[in-house]
Structure formats: C-alpha cells, structure tokens
Amino acid sequence: MKEIKSALVVGAGAIGAAVASILFDANSQAVALCAAGERRERYLREGFIVNQKHYSFRIADATVDGPYDLVIVSVKTDGLAGAIEEMRPFIGPDTTIISLLNGISSEEILRAEFGREKVSLAIIIAIDALRVGNRIEFKSPGEIRFGFEKDFPEASKNRITSVSRFFDAHNIRHTTPPDMARVLWYKFMINVALNQWSALIRGSYGLFQKSLPARMLLTETMKEVIALSDALGKGLVPEDIDTIFATIDNLNGSGKTSMLQDVEAGRKTEVDAFARVVVEKSRECGLSAPINQSLLLAIKAMEDGFSD
Length: 308
Known about the structure:
The protein is α/β, with parallel strands linked by helices. Helix 6 (180-201) packs parallel to helix 10. The model has no long low-confidence stretch (mean pLDDT 94). It has helices at 14-26, 37-46, 80-87, 106-114, 154-169, 180-201, 205-210, 212-232, 239-249, 258-264, 275-284, 290-304, and strands at 7-10, 31-34, 48-50, 53-55, 58-59, 70-73, 96-99, 119-127, 130-132, 135-137, 141-147, 174-175.
C-alpha cells in the first residue's frame, strides 16, 4: 500500500473541524475539507475558529484534485447520503475511508458504495469538541480507533498500517485494536446511553460524573445493549460499563455530547441510529428493550416540538 500523503475531511462539525485542525497544524498541505454549494462558499468566506485560532482550510475541488489517499467522514447520520455524493469524485482505487459517524451502520453503507476493502471500521472516543457556528472548542482531542474485522485479508490490513503512519506523522492519537468489531459496539453503547440521556435531561458530562441517578440511567441503558451484543456475538461484557464510566469521568465536565448540542440548537438528533437500532435489532433477536423504546418516543416527541 502506498504512503498516505493527503486527507479529505467530509463533515466540518465539531469533530471534523477538530481533526482537520490537528492535521493542519502538522502540515497545512496534507488536509482539505469536502464541501459544495452554500457550505463551500461559507467555509471559504468565514473559515473556522478552533480553540481561538483561525483556520482557512483548503476546500477540495473536483475539477482540479485527484483522488485523496485518506477520506475521514464525520457527518451526522442523516447527512451521510449527501456526503457520499460529494466525496465520490475524490475516491480512487487506493483511497482508504474511515467513518467517525456514531452508530453501527455507516461502514456498511459506505462499503456498499465504494467497496468493502476500502472502508475500515472506526470510532473516535473521548473527544469533547463543542461547536457554535464556525467556532469549535476542545480540550481533549480524543483517540481514533480503527481497523478491519479479524477475517479480512492481509492486503486490506496493509491499509491500516499506512493510515497509522500518517496519523503518527500528523499528531492524531490512535490505536488499532485487534477486534475492531467489538470496539465499534463499545462506542455504540456509549452513544446509546450517554448521548441520548444527555439530550433528554439536558446534562453536560459533569452531571454524569457526579449524579448517581444519572449514572444509574446510563447503567440500565447499557445493559440493554450488552444483552443485544450477547445475542449477536459482538463481545460486550458487563465490565465494559465500568470502563465507560472511567472514560466519562476524565472528560471536561462542562463539555456536551453532540446529541445535546443538536437539541439545544433545535436540530434533528441521531436517535434513529441509536434507540431505534437497539429496539429493532432486539425485537429481531426476541429481546425487549423498554428503556430504548422510551428514549425513542421521548426524543422523537422532543424533536416534534422544535418547530413550535
């Protein structure tokens, strides 16, 4: 696999802009953003303010640029279809794609479009980026974990080595776990519990660090995901709950989940990628998921009130 020299970030929200800023600080020529139409014009006009520093990221141009070596997708779930069309001109035979989307579905969607061998399983964990307009603040840059399933051919795994070298050279914290499928479900469990309850009770990370009732809500919700994982053979265990709380306790207490940020901005949330997936997959496995069923209805009802 050839050396990775260029990265395209698709989705310039809190996480995408934070990752792009770290890459830019290491080598401003190594990263570009993918954007079209009004967003492209706005990005070029306003730029981004990340941790109080102004960034004018290069915007990829399909009429000039060839394929990018690495594409990092960080849009919201409901924006994936549009992102696929925008990024399509920049995907070549040797492009490796990493999806930092929440949930457990984006990789399969991207694989169906661009080929299974191009799309690594991936998550980003412990990042506390917060976006307001074009301003992004973060204290913890988090860590990207990525890799293929155990049964992938060795040739595909060479892509992981190339991405790892690129991240090493550009100050992106990362690990390459041997069982990435389990890690994907681990992050899914965090999202299902922390993102959804933070959005519903309007709680920052600090609330879930100090409030016993809030932590109990997370615990009972995570138990539903573990039960589903058992049924599907994804490898989650009850001890993962303690590990997740250790991660939460190290976050900036004033930070907010992306789902809480969506609710405060009156935007549609990712509840369909979280609670709905748990409810539907649990039903298929003969399980019940009453907490996630309630979360689904409550958050959908909250969204219905956004236009009032």
